[in-house]
Amino acid sequence: DLWAKIKGITVVGTGDFTHPKWLNELEEKLIPAGNGLFRLKEKYIDKNYFFHKKPTYFMLSSEISTIYKKNDKVRKIHSIIFAPDFESVKKIQAKLSKIGNINADGRPILGLDAKNLLEIILEVNSECFLVPAHIWTPWFSVLGSKSGFNSIYECFEDLTKYIFAVETGLSSDPPMNWRCSMLDEFAIISNSDAHSPENLGREANIFNCEPSYFLIKDSLKNKDKETFLGTIEFYPQEGKYHYDGHRKCMIRLAPAQSEEYSNICPVCKKELTLGVMHRVMELADRQEGEKSK
Q1: pTM metric for this prediction
Q2: What does DSSP say about strands 38-40 and 57-70: parallel, antiparallel, or unpaired?
Q3: Of the chain's two ends, which shows fewer C-beta atoms within 10 Å, N or C?
Q4: Quick check: 156 and 118 in contact, CB under 8 A?
């Protein structure tokens, strides 16, 4: 709450609502704001700062890691799920606890098809929604080089119609995503993990509407340029997976350099980890600088 105020952020995702202890804390310290969002109870607000009067709103969110086999390939996909109330969260928690250990980590690892995760949350409450997280990173994403698919549709199949936004991750920005016309039907959002409060808002989304779960959702769903104005971006070059390489081998290569080495590390002779830029170039059907209408 305090760091959101320092950063000038109005709405923050809670993260990790699937974890029982964190959910207990959320229920203990938050009160409904009447719009599908929540506020910190007065007794927990730090009054030592002059700007404390502006409320921070919290949106119930969680990141889920699903690892499963599909079409003879292991898939490792991170998804962000959002819910408008604690009742829905508890139902989601109950269903997921039967599939895997939700106590082990803030971001639980479940042996579950990402499509089935989407199905579960929609069955709980049709107002819940899922956004594929950091869609280009190599290891744990829907389009990543190591575990992904070549389109959002390949992953979510007939339920793709319920996916209306994708998240860029720190290593890509909107112009990189605009190069792929298959992403035109999705709103492009940028979130940054709340690993530590002072890192909040490295990336953020800019909305021109009242703080409301339902207005934010509708803004993304309708790709409304009047209410969803754009994103605040981290330099993608500073992202962990922007270029190709091997951390242990101290190797970092641009996609063209990797191809000169046939995507094999010149130090250890094993396959390079192909980064976000490489993967965008593989799937792009537009030139750099082009964008959709």
Answers
A1: 0.95
A2: antiparallel
A3: C
A4: yes
